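Appendix B: complex inputs.
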Amino acid sequence: MKPISRRAVVLGALGCACVRAVPSIASAYEEVAEGIFIRSGLDEEATSDNDGAIANVGFIVGNESVAAWDAGGSLTDGEHLREAIRKQTKLPVRYVILTHAHPDHVFGTAAFLADKPEIIGHAGLPNALARRGEYYRARLESKLGKSRAGTVIAPTRLVEKQLDINLGNRRLTLTAHPIAHTDNDLSALDQHTGTLLASDLLFVRRVPALDGSLRGWLRELRQLKALPAKRAVPGHGPAGVDWPTAADSLERYLNVLLTETRTAIAKGVPIERAVDVVGQSERGRWALFDDYHGRNVTQAFKELEWE
Ligand SMILES: [Zn+2]
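Resulting structure:
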């Protein structure tokens, strides 16, 4: 029998009834700590084939209710997430926590509207969605079609600094971070299991995408490493990783970007040439390096050239 790929598991082997032993959508979810179920996203760009299932999303189950951890990268991806929750528990989905405005994390929100959840986000999320949401929606729609892409849905509750939510004998501490991966990053610490849900403040395996501040991200990473957590859930990469050791590769990448961009600026290397020389030692260490690294250098250059 053909081995089942991780891709087929993530996508629930959709559209192929011919495959025997089709893995269920729920089987893509791994219980990384008691009551925390995460689906590891594919290291791909969003396409019609993968339904935008490229970020790590999941859910946390308490004694009384459930929180969705991000909503998925499309309406279809969000529907799969909701289906996985319903297979696991009958408890109500009281919260949908949106970790930041990037499309692979938010476009499944509409799948949860019937549950009437609180949709929680960073205080900067509404602005970010207003700025970029329509652009993201049009781009996703051109790949997936209108019925599968989803719509931009604003949060109903904002986090300025910190917010505790209780799922029933399970407290999640949500933290709104200063500018780092983006200007609207939200993380959560599950007090019950000592699990840091870092979303895109932590990339593992897939090359990081810098859309906020390089110095800010390094600063927030140092803060996160000091938290009393023994495991973390990255926004991209495996569903669960050891903490804080899993931050090492990201920290190395960001430090190389910082040091070598500063050197390029000091030597008078123009921005369009910097992308060819900065951080080349990181090539081969990350998936999708050529898709994002150049943009990261450009972003870093713009941030550092006036310091
Ligand atoms: Zn992101």
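The radius of gyration is 19 Å.
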